[in-house]
Amino acid sequence: MKKTKPPHQPSQPNPTVLRQLVELIPAYLVPKLAREHGVDERARTFSPWSHVVALLYAQFSHALSLNDVCDGLHLQATPLRALRGATPPSRNALSHANKVRDSAMAEPLFWRVLEHLQARFPRFRDGHARGLAWRFRRSIHVIDATVIQLLATCLDWAEHNHRKAAAKCHVRLALRTLLPGFVVVGSAREGEVAKLPALCAGLRRGEIVLLDRGYHHLACFWELTERGVNFVTRPKENLRLTVVHRRPRGPDPRILRDDEVAATSRGAARAYPGRLRRVTARVCVDGREEVMVFVTNNFKWAPSSVAELYRCRWQIEAFFKQIKQTLQLGDFLGQSANAVQWQVWMALLVYVLLRFQAWCSHWAHSFSRLFTVLRAALWLRRDLAHLLRRYGTADGAFALLTPAVQTEFLCFAP
Questions:
Q1: Does residue 142 have a pLDDT over 90?
Q2: What's the confidence (pLDDT) of residue 404?
């Protein structure tokens, strides 16, 4: 009996790269948050999901204006509908959505997507960094802030100084994963110290936090000490400390002094009644040797470890450089506080999605190159994991987080 061949089944084409990126967001999440925040009540033809997709596309494509976003999506209306029924917006619809739809929805969207990815992929949650972050065998957090320049028309809510307007983004970054653990976005008029209690609220006993000098607040430092959290920072120049006990410097010639100190002024002593440890070391700044002073509440580490820990704080400077220069935080699609909040949180969400793709594909090149490749391939029907694994023309491995040009310690290996 003659065998008949089964009918030919056409293969299904791969989804677009943009679809593979956007569908990392759980399908139920955006409609659920829209109902919780009343966003769906203001939506008619332009759904909350289409709004989120449009803002994500603006980040991935590095769009410079509302027309740039709308024209690009209208030209790809057919593949766009495959993204769970997303529709391209008109210019007025996108502008109105950025202005009136509550940006409080964007923050939980970011955190729940991050939690979803970390829950499904525990190794992504644990991180893959090496060096100091693993040598200490405990979580290390870095706290700092960056100023995002805005147009002068935003002066009514984001006045920075005189005729300039700016927003400020405060971040607590996990050193192992290079992912945000806490973010506060507000006006640049608000100082760093006012946000410090919120940034430190989630820290647990035994963890380490590295802070910039702008976050110097003795009362908050004492609270961290009572909670068992270790901190490393630089003291303010006007902080008066007296030496209680001189500790041995150790064999490292770059360590000048290692002292146990206490605050001398009445207000400072009342804010931090315990002892602090002050380490003085010679460091190289722009090719010149300078003396820097560090303060910590840990008395067990070697003095070289205290200085090396503070050097790791500069990883957050590279993080800020990536989200401000690689992603779209230079040109905003709206001037209201609500529109700016939407765009900042969507930029952070895109950063997490890119980090996840880099982890999945074992991406060995720079973050900016990863963003450039995905931007060029947004509408291609290629398997994203295969594309990133096989991509690359240059030999060798490159750090995913480009180190910021900052102070380096001559005596400590990178």
A1: yes
A2: 47
